[in-house]
Design a protein that fits this description.
Length: 290
């Protein structure tokens, strides 16, 4: 009877949270999907028009630029954060002293918002006041580093700034995982004279698949909502060369008053990320069950 009463109390505490989550996440997601098939412009209009907004969206060259940039940015962001984060975690694990100092330094970018990160890198990469000017003033007048104003490289600068901001999180996740590994593994490896790098890559890191899954999920969410750093660093420019779906959705929702098309873009963006992440999640779940 006591267990039953405790269970009832637990559900009474959880129900408000569950209602809020379903309403503000799944409810709004469903409503956005519904608006994408309606004639909504500046205000919601529930007149059904089928897939017209999607046809307009897929005929829009700017959308394809933003959509392709999501894959470029996402691929670089995931690869860069994971490679640097895991590398830094291993290096910090090998340190015998000053680990706290270096961990604080590498985690510092996380204390900054993505808006501040974007603005900081905008100044650093600005050809007139940043790296290019410093190198030219040092005696190399022909040096060029104008990626932030280059249509071909602007999205790369966005990815670079985001990697600088997000690497610390991945580092701390994997460092915690590495520190939790059984010390007997290291004792056995020293007895067998196995190089440290082989212990990390062949024994320790394969045990951290759950940590990798968490890292991929967190970085994937950041790719979907990559709005702040883009607006602060390039504002989607030059032109719309570094535009991303999140900025496209924001502009069509709140600036151009075309809610239907913005909703269609949001649906395509989210469905794409689900289609990419879901097979990986399914594989990991099946692997654990096996």
């Amino acid at each position: 009877m006591r267990m039953s009463a405790n269970r009832i109390k637990a559900w009474l505490v959880l129900i408000p949270c569950i209602v809020v989550v379903f309403y503000f996440i799944w409810g709004f997601a469903a409503y956005t999907a519904y608006l994408s098939v309606t004639k909504s412009t500046f205000l919601p209009d529930h007149e059904f028009i089928g897939t017209a907004n999607y046809r307009v969206l897929f005929d829009h060259h700017r959308w394809w630029v933003a959509y392709s940039n999501m894959f470029i940015f996402g691929g670089l962001y995931l690869a860069g954060c994971l490679a640097l984060g895991i590398g830094l975690a291993i290096l910090l694990d090998r340190l015998t002293g000053s680990e706290t100092l270096f961990r604080t330094i590498y985690l510092y970018p996380m204390s900054l918002s993505l808006i501040v990160t974007g603005l900081a890198w905008q100044w650093i990469l600005n050809p007139t006041i940043g790296i290019q000017k410093l190198v030219r003033d040092a005696g190399y007048p022909d040096f060029k580093f104008n990626w932030v104003s280059s249509p071909d490289h602007a999205i790369l600068t966005v990815a670079f700034a985001a990697i600088w901001h997000g690497t610390g999180l991945i580092m701390i996740l994997f460092l915690s995982g590495i520190k939790s590994v059984d010390p007997e593994i290291w004792k056995a490896s020293r007895i067998d004279r196995i190089p440290a790098w082989r212990v990390y890559f062949n024994i320790i890191l394969p045990q951290l698949r759950a940590t990798l899954l968490t890292a991929v999920m967190l970085l994937g969410f950041q790719v979907v909502r990559s709005f702040d750093v883009v607006v602060a660093l390039t504002d989607g420019g030059p032109g719309y060369a570094s535009d991303v779906p999140a900025r496209y959705v924001f502009e069509y929702f709140f600036e151009r008053g075309r809610i239907g098309q913005g909703s269609a873009a949001a649906v395509v963006m989210v469905v794409t990320m689900i289609a990419i992440v879901l097979p990986y999640l399914y594989f990991e779940v099946r692997r654990k069950e096996a």
